[in-house]
């Protein structure tokens, strides 16, 4: 299969991204935008020291962002390793919050396809609603695009009814042209989401990379009529940044993508800053970051 993607004007993309990220919204709309951003977050813990207790605590926070302000929306999902999916699923019982699991030898992707597919199937069997896979960046950078396409397609099949997020790890792709090509391959191979990063590599999500991926989604929609979701992950830490990204989504893709089915933030620390900003809107006081639990 031939994968022909447009050449990216890096200067033009940087200028467009800068303009979009400098937009402001009316104060009356700020609370609505912040609540929307909170509802789009995937709370995540992906550490070797993760325990059942830590996951249960994160799930409680996902359902109760701030006990003193019960009108706050819940987050969209929690993301854990496959071995902790069942713990998260049980802890979230009765809520609408999704359980996502990383798979395919996350974060490196350096394993055999057999192992990657078994990893995916295990996560789904444990109850995962969504699978976050990583592409084989080495194969991609060697120009083996059909290999990358076939692997994504195989993982998509292994997902069954679970939605598939395909992580490009844009910080390792080096150019915006490669980001665009990887986005196009992932969508044609069956991705339900395209996602910037694992959060383990710097740089992670950036405005320019996100804009290139959003434009790829827009063009794919024009060509196929299929809406693909987007998830910038890593490096988005402030409420102000989250609102700027929402502006970028609205201006590039339109209102239809402004919900947590089609747009997510992979940034657990972001939740706390949004909550603090929402509390400030209600009380007039901006509390210390120690006011809210980090997990």
A few lines on this structure:
By secondary structure, the protein is of the alpha/beta class. The protein has one domain: Aldolase class I (TIM Barrel). The chain contains 11 helices and 7 strands.
Keywords:
TIM Barrel, 11 helices, alpha/beta, 295 residues, seven-stranded parallel beta sheet, globular
Overall description:
By secondary structure, this protein is an alpha/beta fold. The protein is 47% helix and 9% strand. It has a single domain (10-291), classed as Aldolase class I (TIM Barrel). The protein is built from 11 helices and 7 strands. The protein has a 7-stranded parallel β-sheet. α2 (27-39) packs across α10 (239-252) and α5 (113-125) runs parallel beside α7 (145-159).
Cα radius of gyration in angstroms: 18 Å
The counted number of beta strands is: 7
Helix content: 40-55%
CATH class: Alpha Beta
The SSE string, one letter per element, is HHEHEHEHEHHEHEHEHH
Instruction: Detail the poorly predicted runs.
Output: none
- Overall form: globular
